Write a sequence for this structure.
């Protein structure tokens, strides 16, 4: 009898997990960032032998990136279903220029919209099945760009069922070709303040023949424990 109850419970939990809406899954990924209270991460954008220093300041719903020792940066202010995007230059903030959102950062394969993960705030995410990425069972979520800014018209997002963390992202160009433009792969994750976040992410850019044209790594250092 105990075995039957256990099996039934597992079936119920499995059913609940699969019944989560696409919006709830994407929201859980967004919340992982908001839960990081007063945390600073240092890292680099690495393309070949070239490295661009990067700092990420997490302050709940306020997130700030600085590049090259603070000479350039941008600020994200997170709201329930949207993000405000601000350009920071010479200590002054202004609305981020729409024509700059899809621009490359320091000749890497990473753009400003990539760092901001803007696609997580596009409306009406849709379930697109499940898939195993490495050893992780993942949901695949599909979103369509509601604006004409940025590089991607559509994006597929793979989210791990276990940790509700990003596993892979693919950004596509316009239909009918719907050519993949770029792929993000989460290589390593780390646990910061009880929340899983990216430690190493590989960004691959594709050419018109869908072959890899460039690769950049986003790498963050593990935060030092306080008192050390």
């Amino acid at each position: 009898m105990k075995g039957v109850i256990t099996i039934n419970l597992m079936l119920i939990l499995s059913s609940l997990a699969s019944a989560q809406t696409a919006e709830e899954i994407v929201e859980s990924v967004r919340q992982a960032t908001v839960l990081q209270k007063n945390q600073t991460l240092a890292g680099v954008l690495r393309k070949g032998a070239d490295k661009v220093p990067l700092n990420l300041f997490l302050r709940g719903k306020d997130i700030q990136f600085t590049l090259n020792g603070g000479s350039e940066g941008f600020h994200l202010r997170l709201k329930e279903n949207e993000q405000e995007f601000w350009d920071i230059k010479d200590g002054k903030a202004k609305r981020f220029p729409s024509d700059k959102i899809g621009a490359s950062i320091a000749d890497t394969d990473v753009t400003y919209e990539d760092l901001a993960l803007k696609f997580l705030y596009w409306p009406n995410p849709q379930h697109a099945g499940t898939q195993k990425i490495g050893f992780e069972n993942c949901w695949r979520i599909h979103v369509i760009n509601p604006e004409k800014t940025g590089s991607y018209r559509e994006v597929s997002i793979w989210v791990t069922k276990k940790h509700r963390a990003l596993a892979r992202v693919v950004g596509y160009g316009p239909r009918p070709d719907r050519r993949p433009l770029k792929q993000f792969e989460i290589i390593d994750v780390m646990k910061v303040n009880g929340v899983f976040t990216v430690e190493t992410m590989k960004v691959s850019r594709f050419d018109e023949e869908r072959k890899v044209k460039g690769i950049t790594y986003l790498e963050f250092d593990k935060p030092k424990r306080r008192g050390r």
